[in-house]
Design a protein that fits this description.
single chain; 242 residues; alpha/beta; six-stranded parallel β-sheet; two-stranded antiparallel ribbon; 8 strands; 47% helix; 17% strand; globular
Length: 242
């Protein structure tokens, strides 16, 4: 954002502010960051791309010569290497960690899994299903009717888990039966992240919501977290003056 003082002035003149706590009450949240090691094939591919800004694939090259494209490609290598034919036969570190947490929710349900990338969402759904959970998927490729069905089935307890993108599940759903939210990868926007976590807090709870963020060690995951923090701080500065 730029000219945040103008944004502040617009909000002062044309908005009515109600805080989350005012509407839903103070919520307790336990936020954890879990550092995850890359498996050997992923580590090799990521380091090669990071050092050379290009990665040779079976029949093409993955180009990262411009900063914006490089950031996107680096995230894709970590999130869904299988779409590039990378890391074949290797279970990623985040998939292993997700499987452990998913197993803890068998018979209890109440798990939300978020990623900004559709391919990662779908793979996470498979991981959770293999762990024994009944899983629904929500992303841009799922129709509004099917998303509504997933919402209803989860709220009624017929689904144990929802795997979703932040952009499509960040608004409109109230999933207070959720026990744990897992952010497998972060979005670039602080609002998307916070609103998605709030899916589990939009009513009174009798226990804190547990939120777990996965980060690959020494990767673009830490840079993404810094961007999210920077945007969240800017939000606070503007809202503090409204």
């Amino acid at each position: 954002w730029v000219n945040e003082e103008k944004v502040t002035e617009i909000l002062k003149r044309h908005s009515v502010r109600h805080t989350f706590e005012e509407v839903y009450g103070r919520q307790a949240r336990i936020y954890e960051t879990e550092l995850v090691e890359m498996e050997p094939k992923m580590s090799q591919a990521y380091k090669e791309f990071e050092e050379n800004a290009v990665l040779e694939l079976e029949q093409s090259f993955l180009d990262g010569s411009s900063p914006g494209v490089a950031a996107i490609r680096a995230r894709q290598i970590l999130a869904h290497p299988e779409t590039f034919g990378l890391c074949e036969g290797e279970v990623s570190g985040k998939d292993e960690r997700l499987a452990i947490h998913a197993a803890d929710h068998v018979g209890e349900g109440g798990l939300l899994v978020f990623s900004p990338l559709v391919a990662e969402v779908e793979r996470c759904a498979k991981v959770c299903e293999e762990a024994g959970l009944r899983v629904g998927i929500i992303h841009g490729g799922i129709s509004a009717e099917d998303r509504a069905a997933v919402d209803s089935e989860y709220q009624s307890g017929n689904l144990d888990c929802i795997c979703a993108t932040y952009a499509t599940a960040g608004t409109g759903f109230n999933w207070n039966r959720t026990k744990t939210v897992i952010c497998v990868s972060l979005p670039f926007g602080s609002d998307e992240l916070e609103q998605s976590i709030r899916r589990g807090e939009r009513s009174l709870r009798d226990h804190p919501l547990r939120v777990i963020e996965f980060q690959y060690e020494n990767s673009i995951d830490q840079h993404t977290r810094k961007l999210v923090n920077k945007k969240a701080e800017l939000d606070k500065q503007i809202l503090a003056q409204v």
